[in-house]
Structures are given as C-alpha cells and as structure tokens.
Amino acid sequence: MAMVSTYCPQFNGLRRSCPKLDNAQPQSFLQHINSQLRLSSSRKPCRAVIAMAGSGKFFVGGNWKCNGTKDSITKLVSDLNSAKLETDVDVVVAPPFVYLDQVNATLTDRIEVSAQNSWIGKGGAFTGEISVEQLKDIGCKWVILGHSERRHVIGEDDQFIGKKAAYALNEGLGVIACIGELLEEREAGKTFDVCFQQLKSFADVVPSWDNIVIAYEPVWAIGTGKVATPQQAQEVHVAVRDWLKKNVSEEVASKTRIIYGGSVNGSNCVELAKQEDIDGFLVGGASLKGPEFATIVNSVISKRVAA
Ligand code: PGA
User: Fold this and answer.
1) Atom of ligand 1 nearest to the CA of 148
2) Looking at residue 52, what is its pLDDT?
3) What is the pLDDT at residue 51?
4) What's the predicted TM-score (pTM) here?
5) Which of 21, 121, 173, 287 is most buried, by the most CB atoms less than 10 A from its CB?
6) Signal sequence span per UniProt (predicted)?
7) Please, what's the b/e burial string for 154-186 (b: 16 or more CB within 10 A of its CB; e: otherwise)?
8) Long-range contacts of 40-49 (CB under 8 A, 24+ apart)
9) Of the residues 143, 151, 263, 272, which should be mutated to test ligand 1's pocket, given the most ligand atoms within 8 Å of the CB?
10) What pLDDT, on the 0 to 100 scale, is given for residue 50?
C-alpha cells in the first residue's frame, strides 16, 4: 500500500508531475509493479489532482469593462446564478462601478465582486474617482489594476499603478495586477523586459503578495480575437514565475496565481488551461455571456489528471 501511495503525483521542484503521463520516462520495474497494483485495486477509485506548477487555486475573473445596462446585467447575473461552476475555482466578476452594488446584492456568494479601478489613496476632493474604502463599503473584494486599457488608453504609468496597488492591498482588497507587452514590443523581442519591468514596479511597493493575482495579458491579444497560443502564454507564465522566484521568493512564486487574459473564450480555454503555469484567466468579451463564462471557469477540469 505504501508503494502505491508513493507512485503519483510527485513534486519536482515547483512542478507537480505525474510520471505515468510522461512518455519520455521509461517505467522502472518497480513503477510497473506499482501500476499493476493500482489497476488491480479496483475498489479504490483514482483520485484527481490538478496538474499545475503553482500551488494556488485556479482563478477566473470576468472583466465586464464599460459594458452593460441595468437590464442586461440583471440577465447576466441570473445566468451566473444558475450556472454550475466547479468548486475548485475562485470566481470573480468586475462590473462597471455604477452596477457594482446591484451585482453584489443579487449575485450568488459563490462569485466575488471586483472593481475595475480604484484611487491611489483615501477619498476626498478627487472628482470622478472611487476610493478603496467606498469599494469595501459596498462589499467589493478585489480591484483590477494596471489593465492595458488604463495604461495605454488612459495613460496610467507604472508608478501611479504601483501606488494604487499598495494602497488597495494595505486596505485589504485583493489586486488583480495586469502586465503585458504591446505588439511592437513583442516583435522587438522585448516581451520579457516589459513584463519584468511592470512586475518590478508592483514588487517595489506592495506590502505582501498574499492578495495578488498576476494577469498576463498581451496587449495585442486583448479584444482582438487573436489569442496567444498556449505555448506563447506558457512561455511568459514560466518566465514570470521564475522572476518571482528570483526576485521575491520561492514561496511567492509557487503560491501566486498567474492568469492569462486576451481573447479567451469557450473554445480556446481548454488548451490554454492545460498549460502547467496557467492558473486561470481574466476574460473580457466572453465574460458577458453567462454560459460561456461558466465554460471557461469549468476548464479547470482539463487540468485534472488521475493520481
Ligand atoms: P478580452 O479582454 O477577453 O475581451 O480580450 C481581456 C481583458 O482585457 O481582460
């Protein structure tokens, strides 16, 4: 029995791997015997483990951006409330500010609510801004910061975004911290430089990484229908995890969820989710359709392997 339980899964550094699925490794005689033992003990069902490089729970966020009306949001909330969502996923939606209270009051507790932005400090004479305290007051748990639309359309810079993140975290909000390169930066071979610089400006100011989810969102993939290939996304996610390991700590590298965003939909989510370093998604357009968003949440199933 002890032999069986040591068979799978194995931890290999940060990576959780299942040798049974690794064709490159020939089976030893002992492994062969173990697998026969497993097969013959038919009364004990196979356990499913999540094959992820990090140790954090799968996380899927829906960024509704500047979309919706009272009526369309009522319908979306009702679709989400009746959706069947896998249990081992943290699910968050980010409605526009004016609908946050409506959504929070009507949405199932299974799904948490996020804002799409917050002010850099305590509220006061800042026309048009919304403070972290106000967000907490209406039950908001998260805020998306550093989104490329705020960086490149509104003109927010690393320092400003860093201030917002530090303030929100200090006040107890979770932060979905977005990073990602422009198309010309990718073409110039600067993807890692850009992502690491954006990561560093978070790392320099945040009090802790406990409440941060990193969203890697290549700007060329956002709202364009041009999704990164699973390999392109995985390559950057590994590099981000490695950066955290070298510049923050091994523990933070393992625990911090690194989610992918950019044209994720119900059809491409499964292949992306299979990548070991993709710990979930930040979804824009496809999060406006309840059933499709549920499909994306449930893509966690494709990460499960038999143990
Ligand atoms: P998209 O947006 O899924 O519509 O590309 C993703 C995002 O901006 O978070």
Assistant:
1) 8
2) 87
3) 77
4) 0.86
5) 287
6) none
7) eebebebbbbbbbbbbebebbbbbbbbbbeebb
8) 41/4, 46/306, 46/307, 47/306, 47/307, 48/304, 48/305, 48/306, 48/307, 49/9, 49/16, 49/18, 49/304, 49/305, 49/307
9) 263
10) 74
Cis before 9? omega within 30: yes
Domains along the chain with CATH numbers? 58-305 (3.20.20.70)
At residue 12, the pLDDT reads: 36
Q: Is 74 exposed, middle or buried (0-12, 13-18, 19+ CB in 10 A)?
A: middle
Residues of the chain under the 70 pLDDT cut: 1-47, 306-307
Ligand 1 atom with the shortest distance to the CA of 286: 3
